[in-house]
Automatic annotation (TrEMBL):
Keyword annotations: ATP-binding, Coenzyme A biosynthesis, Cytoplasm, Kinase, Nucleotide-binding, Transferase
Name of the gene this protein is made from: coaE
Location relative to the cell: Cytoplasm
Protein name: Dephospho-CoA kinase
Pathway entry: Cofactor biosynthesis; coenzyme A biosynthesis; CoA from (R)-pantothenate: step 5/5
Annotated SUPFAM superfamilies: P-loop containing nucleoside triphosphate hydrolases
The keyword Cytoplasm appears for this protein: yes
Species: Candidatus Lachnoclostridium stercoravium
Main location: cytoplasm
PANTHER family according to UniProt: BIFUNCTIONAL COENZYME A SYNTHASE-RELATED (PTHR10695:SF46), DEPHOSPHO-COA KINASE-RELATED (PTHR10695)
Amino acid sequence: MERETIKKDKTVIGITGGVGSGKSRILEILKNDYGADIILADDTAKELMEPGKPGLAKVVEDLGDSFIRGDGSVDRAALAELIFRDHKARKTVNDIIHPMAWATIEEKIQRSSSLLVIMETAIVEEKMHDICQEIWYVYTSRENRIQRLMENRGYTRQKCEAIMDSQWSDSQFRSVCQRQIDNNGSIEETRNQIREIIKEL
């Protein structure tokens, strides 16, 4: 497929949506059809918690090494348990990793040679509005999301609903996003929506 064209100035778009909404489909279209550079906020934060990285070093300095394995790698289950049961530990990790993650994301955007950079995140924070020209909300109905999660990840309906109930509502997402992509239909329907939006950028 011939790659779609975009304007010649670098454009940074934020992509968000609830679990099971199909954000990965949107990212795939933007990468394959428009040559977009994709930055995943969660992965950026995780990278900072790898051995030898400054984020992990600072967290260990403040919280100790109870979640570090013998080989120096992070026992993520142990870290998750620590964060879950200890509010202060959770705040400490967030206070360390958050600023580092945003700084790393901004560096990745600056280094990108692509004219279109996409930042994907499950949570819309104020900083996103400073970095992104627009934020797009990927909308999929609750029932379709549940079916996708049950089929693709093997979740129970109860688990799906518990996760969704802990996340933002559709109205909350829409209140902070400039555009919405309806991802309930076929990939071609989604691709057509994206094509029309890109024309307007």
